[in-house]
Amino acid sequence: KQWYQRRVAITAGIAVEQRIPFLNTLETKVSNQNEAKIKIMAKVGMLRIDRGELGEIEDLIKNLEQMVDKLGEVTPVHGSFYELSAKFYKAKGDYNNFYRDSLRYLGCIDINNLTSKQQQEHAFHIGLSALLGDKVYNFGELLAHPLLEALQMACPWIVELLRAFNRGDMNKLEQLQPQWKQQPDLARNEVALKQKCALLGLMELTFNRASSNRSIPFAQVAEAVKLPVGEVELLVMKAISLNLVKGSIDEVDKVVNLTWVQPRVLDLQQIAKMNERIQDWAAVVEETVKDVESQIPELLCN
């Protein structure tokens, strides 16, 4: 009962400047209850971020991460930790870590407990971080998340843009330019966005080819990613350095030999293409088996 009354007091309107001392006092009284302590520490961290006090938050996150790891299975407490972590990285402008921890936060909560406005705000900022993060090349998890429905209603162009990036669709990127250039963060990073979409286009081109047919002329790569042929080699080198693809470049014959593409969460369209390739492979195997079986008598005679 006493714990409940204190929780009510926190939400009932304690002055902002009094909340942190109050929570610090409360923390000492629940020091033996790890889950309660983590939630209080996370709340203190979020209040400090709101006040612009970022200096100690990174150490706080490291300490909380160790405490959360000891809990074992995922609990609602993990949600409090990832909410704090995502808020910290958002304040720092760290798109990659914000994207990662925001998805983890959403995985720990019931999004139906968020208001429509909260869902839209979360989806918008996560979508921006996916586009702007220089290490984010997997959009499948976000595109499959129910939260995206809220964004589809509020800001449909950014959902289209995310899907275009997931396919590496440079044409769609250009079509949507009037919309995304109105968003300051995207407009400031136009060059990086186009390079990222081209890299995803290279990944998609590789993925859509059978493993036995991944020797691709520079001209075909250039056509797929809408770049001059002279820029293809640099693009492929960039993709290899980021571990998005593996392979080699034949500068003499102007051919890219790709042997591997980084695994991603696939959308339904990509899954359908993979199914087609599996069916083609199965047909080739069946034909090979028939061919071998037809030659067995001849082999036995010899």
The low-confidence runs, each spanning 5 or more residues with pLDDT under 50, are 1-5, 7-12
- Helix/strand-derived category reads mainly alpha
Kindly report how far apart the N and C termini lie. Answer: 90 Å
Q: Widest sheet: strand order?
A: 1-3-2
Helical stretch count?
17
Q: Secondary-structure blueprint of this entry?
A:
Elements: H1 2-11, H2 16-29, H3 34-50, H4 57-69, H5 76-92, H6 95-108, H7 116-132, H8 140-143, H9 148-154, H10 156-167, H11 170-175, H12 177-180, H13 184-188, H14 190-207, E1 215-217, H15 218-225, H16 232-241, E2 245-250, E3 255-261, H17 268-301
Structural descriptors:
single chain; 302 residues; mainly alpha; 3-stranded antiparallel β-sheet; 17 helices; 3 strands
What is this structure, in a nutshell?
By secondary structure, the chain is mostly helical. The protein is built from 17 helices and 3 strands.
